[in-house]
Amino acid sequence: MLTSENNYFEVNTVGDFYSIVIFLYNSNLIKFSIEEKNNIVIEINPLLSQYFDITIENEIIKELPKYELFIQWIIKCNELKAFIKALSDKNNPIAINVINEYKEEIELIELELQSQTQILNQI
After folding, report:
1. pLDDT tens digits, residue range 47-100?
2. Which is it for the CA torsion 79, 24, 120, 57, positive or negative?
3. Does 55 reside within a domain?
4. pTM of this prediction?
5. Is 24 helix (H, G, I), strand (E, B) or coil?
6. What's the Cα-to-Cα distance from 77 to each of 12, 54, 92, 93, rounded to whole Å?
7. More confident residue, 37 or 57
8. Would the pLDDT of 107 be above 60?
9. 5, part of any domain
10. Cα–Cα distances in angstroms (integers) from residue 37 to residues 9, 44, 58, 59, 62, in the given order
11. Distance between terminal CA atoms of the chain?
12. C-beta of residue 80 within 8 angstroms of C-beta of residue 99
């Protein structure tokens, strides 16, 4: 959670971690891709990378509950972005329906990821 007194992110639970990652992704501050063996690559927005040094070891992330669901979320988000980018007419009713279906699936995954209450230092 972002606190106004200390201006830092407090990450206590797995859900907190996923919430921050989702926020950063939705704010276009980070991008994800997946390499072989389900290794996640995190790319920081170049405008911000000079100010932040974010290193998250894949082995640590892989130990988190719902890691496979997190992978699904990344895949769905990347598929949606690619679909929208490929559209010639973003107002096409069929395209709008597909976009909305993707968004619903992504939101359901986000809710499940964010609901994880396991304490991080106990994992």
Report:
1. 877 776 666 666 778 889 999 999 999 999 999 999 999 998 888 999 999 999
2. positive
3. yes
4. 0.82
5. helix
6. 25, 21, 20, 20
7. 37
8. yes
9. no
10. 30, 22, 10, 11, 11
11. 20
12. yes
Identify the helix (H) or strand (E) that includes residue 112: helix 93-114
List strand residue ranges (DSSP E) for 7-117, in order.
30-34, 40-44
Q: Identify the residue whose tokens are 């959670």.
A: 1
pLDDT bin (cut points 50, 70, 90) of residue 123 is: low
Rounded Cα distance, 119 and 123, in Å: 7
Residue 6 lies in a domain: no
Tens of pLDDT along 8-33? 667 889 999 999 999 989 999 889 98
CA distances from 78 to 11, 96, 102, 122 (A): 25, 17, 10, 31
Task: Answer yes or no: is 42 within a domain.
Answer: yes
Host domain of residue 100: 14-122
Is the pLDDT reported for residue 3 higher than 60? no
Domain count, the chain: 1
Q: How far apart are CA 48 and CA 83, in angstroms?
A: 26
